[in-house]
Specification:
With about 200 residues, this protein is an alpha+beta fold. About 30% of the residues lie in helices and about 30% in strands. It is built from 6 helices and 11 strands.
Length: about 200
């Protein structure tokens, strides 16, 4: 049985260059998602959300392999981030942030499979977060870059994106700031963390 790794089959979306921004057209995909608010380093809801996302994603992988004969690598954690005052992302005022944490799922994963995976996770974690869901996300035209370094060092890159690259290229942001966590922060030094920074845009 072949094992699909979407980070390789859709390399442009998960492995952009580090030195410059690139424009990509992101196709519609489905994700297991959970919404929340607050500092991801201290908010209990954030830790619970991440636990639930993986506790559903792995049973889905095993279900797919056993029932459908289709194996794949579980995808990295991703996050959509926003705030009433978007300058808090440059100042790193994390208590003001809202987020949707999510993990991409293959298009052949069904709602029935998702519900079965949730039932399995309930045995360990009890009732799931209210916003836990399987949902499509159509991001479309986006600008992205691979950031190497601490999450708190993203500010200058985001400033260049929004203050320089977008206006210089006739683009304007349309959706939430998007991060894809390629590295595991539990096993990787902060200065070596790899994070895809993505911003959906429209042409002016």
């Amino acid at each position: 049985m072949d094992k699909v790794d979407f980070k390789k089959t859709m390399k442009a979306l998960w492995q952009p260059p580090t030195g410059h921004f690139t424009v990509v057209d992101v196709p519609p995909m489905q994700f297991v998602k959970i919404d929340g608010h607050g500092d991801p380093n201290t908010a209990p809801a954030y830790k619970r959300a991440v636990e639930w996302l993986y506790s559903v994603s792995y049973p889905l992988k095993f279900m797919s392999k056993k029932e459908l004969g289709r194996d794949y690598a579980v995808m990295p954690l991703e996050g959509l981030w926003w705030a009433q005052d978007m300058s808090t992302f440059l100042s790193r005022d994390k208590d003001a942030w809202s987020w949707t944490m999510m993990i991409m799922q293959p298009e052949w994963i069904t709602q029935a499979m998702f519900e079965a995976a949730v039932d399995k996770a309930k045995a360990k974690f009890g009732a799931p977060p209210e916003t836990l869901r399987l949902e499509a996300y159509d991001e479309g035209l986006s600008v992205q870059i691979m950031h190497v370094g601490s999450y708190d060092d993203e500010g200058p890159v985001l400033r260049r994106l929004h203050k320089e690259f977008l206006p210089e290229n006739g683009l304007a942001e349309t959706g939430h700031h998007h991060e894809i966590y390629i590295s595991d922060p539990r096993k990787t030094a902060p200065e070596k963390l790899k994070t895809v920074l993505r911003q959906p845009v429209r042409r002016l």
